[in-house]
Amino acid sequence: MRFLMIVKANEESEAGIMPTEEQLAEMGTYNEQLVKAGMLLDGAGLHASSDGARVKFSGGKPTVIPGPFGEPESLLAGYWIIKADSKEEAIEWAKRIPFKEGEVELRRFFEPEDFVQGPAMEREMELWKELEATRS
User: Counting C-beta atoms within 10 Å of the first and last residue's C-beta, which end of the chain has fewer, N or C?
Assistant: First the structure.
């Protein structure tokens, strides 16, 4: 199973304040543990929402809304994508994140077997295989 560990933004991340050297070292150790356990698939920090944009659709028409957006606690500051055998294992890894303050939300990805199988899903799987081939 794949899980998205969503790091919630805060006032500091939205202000563009970067982690300290100590925080980076702690995070590097944590990431190294995920890699050695064969669990880390991807991860990154995100720039503040003031550098972003939203595209909202209404009646089939897109409208671009420049950042910043709302309350920091409702925004994302970063993420990890991990592979775990269970939700409980993913939670245990989330509990090891070396944060002093903050919040991380865990969400499970849908997998192909979760969907109704048919021609549309077969085509979707072909596209994902092509994408995976480009990453290798």
Answer: C
Domain 2-135 belongs in CATH node 3.20.20.140:
no
Contact 4, 42 (CB under 8 A): no
Tell me which residue has tokens 């890699």: 35
3-state SS, residue 26? helix
By the 10 Å C-beta count (0-12 exposed, 13-18 middle, 19+ buried), 81 is classed as middle
**Using one digit for the tens of pLDDT, what is the confidence trace for 80-89?**
999 999 999 9
Query: Three-class SS of residue 79?
Result: strand
Instruction: Report the alpha-carbon distance of residue 128 to residue 115 in Å, rounded.
Output: 15
All structural domains of the chain with their residue ranges: 2-135
Q: Tell me if residue 38 falls in helix, strand or coil.
A: coil
